[in-house]
Amino acid sequence: MKIIGLSGSQVGSKTRTAVDAAMKSLKDKYPDVETNLIDLAEYEMQFSDGRNYLEYEGDTGYVTKELMEADAIVIGTPIFQASIPATLKNIFDLLPVNAFRDKVVSMIVTAGSPKHYLIADLQLKPILAYMKAQLVQTYVFIEEEDFYRKEIKNNDILDRIDRLAEDTVVLTETFTKIREEKEAQYDF
User: Fold this and answer.
1) Which part of the chain is the NADPH-dependent FMN reductase-like domain (predicted)?
2) Which fold has domain 2-184?
3) Which pTM does this prediction carry?
4) What is the mean pLDDT of the chain?
5) In 3-state terms, what secondary structure has residue 20?
């Protein structure tokens, strides 16, 4: 099983900190799971121009191929101006419509205000559903006050990140088993 952590912003540190915590939880609890963290701040991404994702080279080609090869993705996103950042939306635009078919996607949202709590439900979940993702229904919402010096200080948040990691693995294993049983019904 391959799980990608995607920190979906080019600025700030809180989303990266939260996705790092999820990746650490996955490594600690599931050492056999292959994990990789992709922080968009570390890559030179091209804007989507309608090409097939396989035609992109460099960082853009690497990131899109890694996402397409993953069994599950933990998406971390900050909320800027009551919306997801353009860097994350560009990732979705670079990928095909069915990019997340047979993939489990879970979410971690960082925001400066509790007023942004529903952005994931109103903006991110519809995009992921359109792209055929199997969503972990609960997500982790983290506010500014939960961080101190680039660390998560709220133990409840850390517990919820652990649970999100567990739910991501369990749901991925479950859907994989269901698909394998369904495919075994065919004789070819």
Assistant:
1) 1-143
2) Rossmann fold (3.40.50)
3) 0.95
4) 96
5) helix
